[in-house]
Amino acid sequence: QVQLVESGGGLVQAGGSLRLSCAASEGTFGTKSIAWFRQAPGKEREFVAGISWSGGSAENGDTVKGRFTISRDNAKNTVALQMNDLKPEDTAVYYCAATRSSSPWFVSRVLGAYGFWGQGTQVTVSS
């Protein structure tokens, strides 16, 4: 069982930046594909970005391409989400999620593919 803890959320003005971090509790983190999802009030949870356990494959959601970057440090059991040029529509609770994968290139955009979830961190972007 892996526990995920998100941090780095907060309040920022439009055009600003935030860096979210996801820390995992166990050593098998390096064999898990990791993704960030977000959920705004009244909306479904949506894929933001994902990275394979090798770090060799990464994907961004269509609404954040060119603005957000996901990266990981397996030695430190952490995944980061650098968010630049933030917009009010980026306001949401951001969740870190993990799934076991035998492939070093596997990344999924599908919510149901992930069995481990953090509690989330709030990101609020003011206009």
- Tally of alpha and pi helices: 0
Structural class: mainly beta
The 3D shape can be described as globular
Order of helices and strands: EEEEEEEEEEE
Radius of gyration: 13 Å
User: Percentage of helical residues?
Assistant: under 10%
Q: Quote the average pLDDT.
A: 95
> Tally of extended strands?
11
Head-to-tail CA distance between termini:
40 Å
What share of the residues does DSSP label as strand, in percent? Answer: over 45%
Please provide a written account of the structure.
With 127 residues, the chain is an all-beta fold. 0% of the residues lie in helices and 48% in strands. The chain contains no helices and eleven strands. It has strands at 4-7, 10-13, 18-24, 32-39, 46-51, 58-60, 68-73, 78-83, 92-100, 116-117, 121-126. Strands 2, 4, 5, 6, 9, 10 and 11 form a seven-stranded mixed β-sheet that branches. The chain is globular and about 40 Å long.
How would you summarize this macromolecular structure in one to three sentences?
The chain has 127 residues and is mostly beta strands. The chain contains no helices and eleven strands.
Q: What labels would you give this structure?
A:
127 residues, mainly beta, seven-stranded mixed sheet, four-stranded antiparallel sheet, 48% strand
Topology readout:
Layout (H helix, E strand, L loop, with lengths): L3 E4 L2 E4 L4 E7 L7 E8 L6 E6 L6 E3 L7 E6 L4 E6 L8 E9 L15 E2 L3 E6 L1
Parallel strand pairs: 2-11
Antiparallel strand pairs: 1-3, 3-8, 4-5, 4-9, 5-6, 7-8, 9-10, 9-11
